[in-house]
Design brief:
Layout lengths: L12 E2 L10 E6 L5 H12 L4 E6 L9 H6 L7 E4 L2 E4 L1 H19 L7 H16 L14 H21 L10 H10 L3 H6 L3 H6 L32 H22 L1
Parallel strand pairs: 2-3
Antiparallel strand pairs: 1-3, 2-4, 4-5
Helix pairs in contact: 1-3, 1-5, 4-6
The structure holds glutathione.
The site of glutathione has 13 residues, from helix 3.
Protein name: GST N-terminal domain-containing protein
InterPro entries: Glutathione-S-Trfase_C_sf (IPR036282), Glutathione_S-Trfase_N (IPR004045), GST_Omega/HSP26 (IPR050983), Thioredoxin-like_sf (IPR036249)
Pfam family, one: GST_N_2
Length: 260
C-alpha cells in the first residue's frame, strides 16, 4: 500500500496509518545514503512513526545540488527537515524535533493552553560504561532506542569499519566493549535500523573527497572477526544478493545518465 510497508532506502512517502493530508514533515536526505547526520534523522522519523515525505538530494561529491533545493537551503548541507514549510538544518536540532512535536501534542491534548588512539579508547570505555550500567541494551533502559541511542548509532556504525580499515583498530569482536556489542546487536535486530544501515565497504570509502583519504597504518591480517559479520537478517541468499546488486547498479547508472 502506498506510503506503508517496511523501511527502505527508496521510500518517498511514509504514512504509518495517517492520511497524506496530515503530513507536516519533509526530510531532505542524501541520495547515496552515506551521510551519518541524515541517517540518524531518518531513523528517528521511522522509529517514532512520524508521517513524512522524502526528497533525495545529491551530495557535493556527485555534482551541483539542484537550484530549487539551494533556493530553499542556501548552505546546501544535508539533512534538512521542513516542518510546516519551515526549513530546519543541523541534525541535533532536528532530532529535538520529535520532542517538540510530542510537547506540542501534549500541550494541545492534556493542557488548557530537547587524537589519538588512547583518547579514543578512553572515550569508548566511557561509552561502554554508560551502556553496561544500563539495565537493557539501550543508554536509557526501556524496550526501545531513545534519542540518545539514535544520536550515537549512525556515527558508531561508521567508526567500526573505518577504524578497522584505516587503523587496523578493531572495535567489535575483541571482548573489550561488551556494552557496545550488546547495544549494536539490539540495533541489528530492528528492521528499521537494518534498512538504514550501510555496509563496511561503503563506510570505508564514503569519506567525502574534500576530507582527503583516511590516514592508514600497516594493517593486521584479516580474520573472521575483522570481516563484516553476515547477520541472519540480511543474509537473504546468493540469488537475492545478485538481484539487489543488479537493481542498485542499474539505478546508479540511470541517476548518472540523468545528471550528466
Ligand atoms: N552540523 C550538520 C552537519 C551536516 C553535514 O556536514 N552534512 C554533510 C553530509 S555528511 C553535507 O551536507 N555536506 C555537503 C555535501 O557534501 O553536499 C548537521 O548536524 O546536520
Amino acid at each position: 500500500m502506498r506510503g506503508e510497508g517496511p523501511t527502505h532506502r527508496e521510500n518517498k512517502l511514509r504514512l504509518f496509518g495517517h492520511d497524506e493530508k496530515e503530513i507536516r514533515v519533509v526530510l531532505y536526505r542524501d541520495s547515496a545514503a552515506w551521510c551519518p547526520y541524515c541517517q540518524k534523522v531518518w531513523l528517528l522519523l521511522e522509529e517514532k512513526k512520524i508521517p513524512y515525505k522524502i526528497e533525495l538530494i545529491n551530495m557535493r561529491s556527485y555534482g551541483d545540488k539542484p537550484d530549487w533545493f539551494l533556493a530553499k537551503n542556501p548552505r546546501g548541507l544535508l539533512p534538512v527537515v521542513e516542518v510546516d514549510g519551515k526549513m530546519i538544518s543541523e541534525s541535533v536540532y532536528i532530532m529535538q524535533l520529535e520532542r517538540r512535536l510530542f510537547g506540542d501534542w501534549c500541550g494541545f491534548v492534556f493542557q488548557p493552553g530537547s587524537f589519538g588512539k588512547s583518547s579514543f579508547e578512553a572515550t569508548l570505555n566511557l561509552v561502554d560504561e554508560a551502556l553496561t550500567s544500563s539495565p537493557g541494551p539501550w543508554f536509557l533502559g526501556g524496550d526501545n532506542p531513545s534519542i540518545v541511542d539514535l544520536q550515537y548509532i549512525s556515527h558508531i556504525e561508521r567508526m567500526i569499519p573505518s577504524c578497522l580499515y584505516w587503523k587496523g583498530f578493531q572495535m567489535r569482536g575483541n571482548g573489550k566493549w561488551k556494552g557496545i556489542e550488546r547495544w549494536l546487536a539490539a540495533f541489528e535486530e530492528r528492521p528499521t535500523y537494518m534498512a538504514t544501515k550501510s555496509d563496511y565497504y561503503t563506510h570505508v570509502m564514503d569519506i567525502p573527497p574534500q576530507y582527503g583519504p583516511g590516514q592508514s597504518l600497516p594493517l593486521a591480517p584479516l580474520s573472521e572477526t575483522s570481516l563484516e559479520p553476515v547477520l541472519p537478517f540480511n543474509n537473504l541468499g546468493e540469488e537475492a544478493a545478485r538481484h539487489e546488486a543488479a537493481t542498485v547498479l542499474l539505478g546508479n547508472h540511470q541517476v548518472g545518465e540523468s545528471s550528466s
